[in-house]
């Protein structure tokens, strides 16, 4: 039943988000499938999976880590100070994204090794941190999946010394189709655009890639290492068995 106090602007936001979801479903299906294949290959070969994002891009990385219905092997590659807005001041996280050399230090001290897969999420893909993360990861022998808005590469300038973007250093690029500025709405009397949709779309892309990987594993006759909700009967026991079997590839649980 609809409310008499419906907001037309709220409805416009839903329409914009739905439109973007339909756009990535139709136009990025091949890239999503390719990303799923890379993830499945790593699971099958004994590799590990990592996801990284800075600032709000980290939300999509966190969404697939230790998640009911998700692959147990996806680990968060965390960079202190850039994971979320809990750091004070919040602007420090944005500043750290532009620090040269930080990505290399993080990867060198991480458990990542050749044959693993790293998903790097960066809306703009223009800052030093995601660019160097991708470059260093590939140099170490990892496969890199980039989830980014390709539009930024034509409408903005890179902040990395190479002049390149995240998309230039990936084995698979998944384009989120988000417009530069990440604001879908405007309104008379409001002097700035608003209504960011990147989190909605990127989270959906991450879950779609995971679903594609699960499908690929099932086609190969491999039982995907999935987690179940701890709020359903038997969930904790199920997860305990998964942790025991795959403990050497899971780093969010000691």
UniProtKB/TrEMBL annotation:
Any one Pfam family match given in the protein's UniProt record, by short name: SIS_2
UniProt cross-references to InterPro entries, sorted A to Z: RpiR-like_SIS, SIS_dom, SIS_dom_sf, SIS_GmhA/DiaA_subfam, UPF0309
Organism domain of life: Bacteria
Domain SIS: from-to ranges: 39-223
CDD domains: SIS_RpiR (cd05013)
HAMAP family reported in the protein's UniProt record: UPF0309 (MF_01240)
Membership in a protein family: Belongs to the UPF0309 family.
Protein name: UPF0309 protein ABZ921_07060
Species whose genome carries this gene: Streptomyces atriruber
